[in-house]
Write a structure and sequence with these properties.
2 domains; alpha/beta; binds coenzyme A; 6-stranded mixed beta sheet; 5-stranded parallel beta sheet; about 280 residues; serine acetyltransferase, domain 1; UDP N-Acetylglucosamine Acyltransferase, domain 1
Length: about 280
């Protein structure tokens, strides 16, 4: 769906929400229906969460608007993130819920602004935004990290993503996940997570290791070695326990290990995902 069509649907669903629950009128009007574009609405929502004594909401809103206007890829990634959460999170019934209520989504969009600032050599401002994201949403993403589109940070409490991490498109990450260094390396020291990976709650992935496309990491794992594409690992330290049923586990969010194919079993069932 293009950004304009998505925005039209967001506004339509916001009007319906106001009709259903008039007590939320001010919230939906101020953050959604008073705006004429997705980037304007997102900038307003994020600035209302992240402002502090030193940075008024109006200054942040202007900064965020400029960043989204300067970076078509950032707002395009935001649109894909909204669709990703709506598609994957069974607790979510409409697009406005994603924008207004999900701190993982808000943290990721704020990071997209911090990343834009970092790429434009405004490092101090990027680090300030990172700090506000961490304090406000309990999600700590270094602004130099690279995060693709269609990414969902579910629940999101305590997620840490280190400076040289790479997260490709269509990845799902649950609460308490760390993409960190081992403490033994310097420079490029963080994980590289390929497309379609699902990372279960509380998992710690440490070091400059590759998590192959379509892999699945069981909750609570400590992953210290590279994970081959389309394999499932779990445990401390993590070991291969099977292969995901689908080719992109991040998209179907199946977290049931009993349904895994055995590691010596058949090829995973291939779904027709368009990534
Ligand atoms: C423990 C640690 C420092 C590695 O120490 P090390 O002595 O160099 O250990 P190695 O990597 O050589 O691994 C030695 C063994 O311990 C295991 N191991 C290492 N770290 C482990 C962990 N956290 N939990 C369980 N087992 C672990 C390894 O699998 C390996 O087992 P094996 O010999 O059977 O293959 C590192 O893995 C670690 O956990 N660092 C903490 C980093 C962190 O918290 N980063 C977050 C930054 S935001």
């Amino acid at each position: 769906m293009n950004i304009e069509s998505l925005w039209d649907q967001i506004v339509t669903q916001a009007e319906q929400a106001i009709a259903d629950e008039p007590l939320l009128t001010n919230l939906y009007r101020r953050h959604i229906t008073d705006h004429n574009s997705l980037s304007s609405a997102i900038s307003n929502i994020l600035s209302s969460k992240l402002y502090d004594t030193y940075m008024p909401a109006s200054s942040l809103e202007q900064l965020f608007n400029e960043a989204f206007n300067d970076s078509p890829q950032a707002i395009s990634a935001t649109a894909r993130d909204i669709e990703a959460v709506r598609e994957r999170d069974p607790a979510i019934q409409s697009y406005p819920e994603v924008l207004l209520h999900l701190k993982g989504f808000m943290a990721l969009q704020s990071y997209r602004v911090a990343h834009h600032l970092w790429q434009n050599n405004r490092h101090q401002l990027a680090l300030y935004v990172q700090s506000r994201i961490s304090e406000t949403f309990d999600v700590d993403i270094h602004p130099a990290a690279c995060v693709g589109k269609g990414v969902m940070l579910d629940h999101a409490n305590g997620i840490v993503i280190g400076e040289t991490s790479v997260i490709e498109d269509n990845v799902s990450i649950l609460q308490g996940v760390t993409l960190g260094g081992t403490g033994k390396e310097s420079g490029d020291r963080h994980p590289k997570v390929r497309a379609g990976v699902l990372i279960g709650a509380g998992s710690k992935i440490l070091g400059n290791i590759e998590i192959g496309q379509g892999a699945k990491i069981g909750a609570g794992s400590v992953v210290l070695k590279a994970v081959a594409p389309h394999t499932t690992v779990a445990g401390v330290p993590a070991k291969q326990i099977g292969s995901p049923e689908s080719i992109m586990p991040a998209l179907d969010m199946c977290q049931n290990l009993e349904k895994e194919l055995a590691s010596d079993g058949k090829t995973p069932h291939i779904l027709d995902f368009n990534i």
